[in-house]
Design a protein that fits this description.
Helices cover 0% and strands 54% of the residues. It starts with 5 loop residues before the first strand and ends with a strand. Strand 1 and strand 2 form a beta hairpin. Strands 7-4-10-11-14 form a 5-stranded antiparallel sheet, with no helix packed on it. It is mainly beta.
């Protein structure tokens, strides 16, 4: 299942669930090298924070504590697929992927291009060693 957060409403003893969040994923290649992955929009899109959900329309609005970055970190990250739950958003220019190295350095990759995440949708950014993910700031 691709959704992480649902809103539910009830009518005549029937519950209807609708997705209210979206998901980004990236495949980390390079075991033992990284300690964090951060994703942010190239246009400063707000993708996380305190959210309010209308249970009638399942529209998500981001309010206090909004952030344009989501991060997963640990002492060391294993190679594999990582998922990020974000609010539905349109990335106007793409996203920046910042990989924190265990030696304290960083690598920055860029996924260029506009794409939209509707409630319940997923978007795979690719592998961290893909040629489509360009190195450096854009």
């Amino acid at each position: 299942m691709t959704q992480a957060v649902f809103a539910g409403k009830s009518s005549n003893r029937t519950i209807s669930l609708s997705p209210v969040s979206s998901r980004l994923s990236i495949n980390l290649v390079g075991s033992g090298k990284y300690k964090s992955i951060s994703i942010s929009g190239l246009s400063g899109e707000k993708i996380s924070g305190t959210c309010a959900v209308s249970f009638q329309s399942t529209i998500v609005s981001v309010s206090a504590g909004t952030s344009d970055t989501v991060t997963y970190s640990s002492d060391i990250l294993a190679e594999g697929l990582y998922y990020f739950c974000v609010v539905p958003v349109t990335f106007l220019k793409g996203v920046r992927i910042t990989l924190g190295l265990k030696d304290g350095g960083v690598e920055t990759l860029t996924y260029n291009g506009k794409f939209k995440l509707d409630p319940g949708s997923s978007f795979h950014l690719g592998n961290t060693d893909d040629a489509a993910l360009q190195g450096g700031e854009q």
